Amino acid sequence: MTTIQSNVDAATIGGRLASAEPSLASAIADWITTSDHKKIGRLFIGSSLLFAVGVSVLGGLLGFERMSAKGYSVLEADAVVQLFSAYQFALVYAVVAPLFVGLAIAVVPLQLGSRSLSYPRLASFGLWAWVSGLIVTLVSIAANGGPGGGNPDMVDLYLLALGLVALGLSAASVSIVVTVLTSRAPGMSLLRTPMFSWSALMGAMATVLTMPVLIGTLVYTYVDHANGRLAFGGNTDVSKWIGWSFTQPQTFVFAVMAVGVLAELAPIVANVRQPLRPVMLFGVTLVSTAALGGATQSTHSFSWNGTIADKVKELIPFALFNLLPILGVLIVLALGGLAAKNGRVKLTASFVFAFLGTGMLFVGMLVHALSMIGPAALAGTVAQESSTLYVVYGAVMVALGAVAHWGPKLWGRCLPKKEMFGLAALALLATILSSLPLVLAGFLDQPSNVVAGWSYDASGLLNAVSMIGHGLMLVTVLGFIGLAFKNFTSGAFASDDPWDAHSLEWSIPSPAPAENFSDIAIVGSAEPLLDVKPARQGVSA
Amino acid sequence: MTMTLPSAPNPAPKRQALVATAVASVGITMLVAGMLGVWLRFRAAADTRMSSDGRRVIKDWLPSDIKIPEVSSNTMLAGLFFGCVMAQWAVYAAKRDDSSHRSIALAICLLMEVAIINAQVAVYSQMQIGVNDGVFQAMFYAITGVIVVLLAVAVAFTAVTWFRSVGGRDNDSHVVAAHALYWYVLTAAFCAVWFVVYVQK
């Protein structure tokens, strides 16, 4: 029998954490060469949060540039093109994608009752390929490379480095998929897989489906750009060929796990087994259909022209590509609400982050769908940038909540509830202020990816508000990093099951030991801990 | 408070290599399919011209002075199919713990891969085109280059499996099965490239 001791006293946990301090060099070497999935995941998460700081600074800078539509305030014209390239790239590939890949690598084996990640060296390769590719990409953009860059060598370098980033994310995703498919505890069928792990399976599979398509296109563009530039239009057309990977619906692929976090937390805060659980799984799966866009390198708009037959012909691909992910999020929100209705909700800061973040994600999806409808006339405007911001900042909010939720298992400590509630409110404000003005500016025909050349009365105001939003997001992320650093290194020790949760990771000590589980447990339901907690035997949907 | 979960016996073998190869195969399929999609898009957008015999209008996609060496490309295809048979022989032998036949089959696979790469090099040398000569040429090198990389991965995969086999790993049948799966996927991918690039042109 596996014995689980909950509410272990702080002194015991402190003793567990206290170990001989290694030298700095050996500690660094240990982290670089580690095959411990918790360390690999934390490296992904920590790096992504640092890049999130840079991205919000960049967003604020571009917002500042756009406060005047007449000319450049601070930056050179050439620099603006590069900054937009770096901004779009970093939002997706430096922040949202690696945040959730890292979270999945750290948490999924714990949820599945597995002692390790499958192919941890592959995940480690993914981490370092991503980090090195990311750094080289940003350096190449800074050196006048990237889409539209004037230095051909740096454009070549950019294409190669972006390929390395895509390869790294694919490698880590393969590791996640194989873990979920092969390393579940006995008795844990796929339908009994915890919601977050299910979303990790779907999100990682969608990544495996779409990143190779990007790599193939990069091979073409690189070979062409390095040799004659006859087919793919040289540096100016790089965006035309790979632009789909920086925008919607591809960003939804990376946000699938964000929806999974909400699906995981809703029944926990409501203190119930998730009602209609298979439908919830289906909802998460629907979000991953966003991979259709990436896999076919296409978007489908709805022009509303022609006969009814023409409209129906346009509506079907439009709905498949744009509305299915929205339906998925809607299902998750509705069933989360149903869980709350059935139980007694005890709010946690991580749930508030996840709920509000998913709400922002939902709004981002709606804005994207709206921008694909012809009469709205939002194509090519900043409304599309706004949609990306809603999705990315919303997903970042969810990720912050997820880090707080699983912090006890990764660091052995909890984050303070009061400060976290404050940060959640700030993050919500930041997301809305940075994104909503750009939706309005889109309706006023402000074009995307330029900092001058439009005219409407409120342009200064809307772009200034957006800049303030980016500033608030910067404060939020920095505040979270500071709070996490302080509390995860010297805060109060967490008990083994501080949230009264349902899945296997809460049956082991906090922080999780090196090999996670001393014994492999047999799982009898989708909420194995509810089956054995004496006071919770009667809890049902 | 103490909670208990029933503990399980040692878990059954997980066949992780096979599952990982299957997932990677999905990625390879998307890679090749995506590249062929772009290829077909360019081909469809090409202008038309009269064929060299002057009897029909054809797409002006393959430059008229370029000849695709069919012997070498067909040899590659045949070699891949032959490799599939050898890979499946290795699986058959591994299931019966027949290490000598397993090792022989894998060694033949390795030989076939080197031969196929050699055939691809022969295609390049017979065609005598430069990568910067035109749109077709650049894209031809890109897509066939990816196939060469996938073949190089196959060489590494086969070499590792073969070394494990001759090293006495007798409980390795799932790795041999994963190797065979990679061969099938590679063969299917090359079939598609062979038809679109070498036959349909």
Structure description:
The complex is a heterodimer of chains A (541) and B (201). Chain A is globular, with a radius of gyration of 23 Å. Helix content of chain A is 67%, strand content 1%. By secondary structure, chain A is an all-alpha fold. Chain A has one domain: Cytochrome c oxidase-like, subunit I domain (Cytochrome C Oxidase, Chain A), CATH 1.20.210. In chain A, helix 4 runs antiparallel to helix 5 and helix 10 (277-287) packs across helix 12. The model of chain A is unreliable at 1-11 (pLDDT under 50). Chain B is mainly α and 201 residues long. Chain B has a single domain, classed as Cytochrome c oxidase, subunit III, four-helix bundle (Four Helix Bundle (Hemerythrin (Met), subunit A)). Chain B contains 5 helices and 3 strands, in the order E-H-E-E-H-H-H-H. Chain B has a two-stranded antiparallel sheet with strand order 2-3. In chain B, strand 2 and strand 3 form a beta hairpin. Strand 1 (2-5) of chain A pairs antiparallel with strand 1 of chain B.
Would you give the CATH topology of chain B?
Four Helix Bundle (Hemerythrin (Met), subunit A)
For the sheet with most strands of chain B, the description reads: 2 strands, antiparallel
Which CATH first-tier class of chain A would you pick? Answer: Mainly Alpha
Query: What order do the strands of the largest sheet of chain B run in, or round the barrel if closed?
Result: 2-3
What fraction, in percent, of the residue positions of chain A are helical?
Answer: 55-70%
Structural class of chain B: mainly alpha
Helix content of chain B: over 70%
Poorly predicted segments of chain A: 1-11
In total, the number of domains of chain A comes to 1
Number of strands of chain A: 1
Q: What does the main sheet of chain A amount to?
A: none
Mean pLDDT of chain B: 91
Distance N terminus to C terminus of chain B? Answer: 72 Å
What features would you highlight for this structure?
heterodimer, A: Cytochrome C Oxidase, Chain A, globular, B: 201 residues, mainly alpha, Four Helix Bundle (Hemerythrin (Met), subunit A), elongated
